[in-house]
Amino acid sequence: EAQVTQNPRYLITVTGKKLTVTCSQNMNHEYMSWYRQDPGLGLRQIYYSMNVEVTDKGDVPEGYKVSRKEKRNFPLILESPSPNQTSLYFCASSLLPNAGNQPQHFGDGTRLSIL
Amino acid sequence: GDSVTQMEGPVTLSEEAFLTINCTYTATGYPSLFWYVQYPGEGLQLLLKATKADDKGSNKGFEATYRKETTSFHLEKGSVQVSDSAVYFCALSESTGFQKLVFGTGTRLLVSP
């Protein structure tokens, strides 16, 4: 089954404690992306990756890091989480090229609470 | 920059009622337009899309027409069901960009029996 898998689904942690949210896709997609969803703001892109070792900032990258060492995995790293990073996070992937027309496949989300 | 504006929710309807969720956009180029749906506790799923002006996207009884003259992509369904209760997101992606989706704020639909 084609899917994007995120882990964990839920996490409550404290300010400053490094955490990683994993994302894995089994569709051999080149493009992967992280979004955060906040009430009244919709989804905003954090980082994206066009392929292995190719990553770039989205609209709200501050406080986040990513890596793309393998095509299937795209972890999101919060080196020193702060309460304003409390949010619902989604990983997505899609094929390239034909930018703009390929639908993105989303994971089920990770709800992070930073106390 | 590019942006998407959706009507505020929640939209509350009775089963079998007609649904319209308004969506307008601002873009510098010729974007592709999408509607995504998010059911409770799940990620977003593509509902329908349109890639050029006057295209109509349709799926599961939902329809939306790409109107370039009014920069709109309103979502419609003739007869909603309780199972349609979800959050609906309008989004655009520039045709020459790198897959970046720009989302509206989402509209929650609540359908009662």
Gross morphology of chain B: globular
Q: Could you say which structural class the secondary elements and strand pairing of chain A correspond to?
A: mainly beta
**Which H/E pattern describes the elements of chain B?**
EEEEEEEEEEEE
* Mean pLDDT value of chain B: 92
Roughly what is the average pLDDT of chain A, rounded to an integer?
92
- The tally of helices of chain B reads 0
Biggest interchain interface, per-side counts? A-B, 27 and 27 residues
Percentage of residues in DSSP E strands of chain A: over 45%
* DSSP strand tally of chain B: 12
Overall geometric form of chain A: globular
Q: Summarize the helix and strand pattern of chain A as letters.
A: EEEEEEEEEEE
Tally of DSSP helical segments of chain A: 0
N- to C-terminal separation of chain A?
36 Å
Tell me the strand percentage band of chain B.
over 45%
Major sheet attributes of chain A: 7 strands, mixed
Helix amount of chain B, in percent?
A: under 10%
Describe the structure.
The complex is a heterodimer of chains A (115) and B (113). Chain A is mostly beta strands and 115 residues long. Chain A is 0% helix and 50% strand. Chain A is built from no helices and eleven strands. In chain A, the strands form two sheets. In chain A, strands 2, 4, 5, 6, 9, 10 and 11 form a seven-stranded mixed sheet that branches. A four-stranded antiparallel sheet of chain A has the order 1-3-8-7, with no helix packed on it. Chain B is built from no helices and twelve strands. Chain B has strands at residues 3-6, 11-14, 19-21, 23-26, 32-38, 44-50, 56-59, 62-65, 75-77, 86-93, 102-103, 107-112. In chain B, the strands form three sheets. In chain B, strands 2, 5, 6, 10, 11 and 12 form a six-stranded mixed sheet that branches. A four-stranded antiparallel sheet of chain B has the order 3-9-8-7, with no helix packed on it. Chain B starts with a strand and ends with a strand.
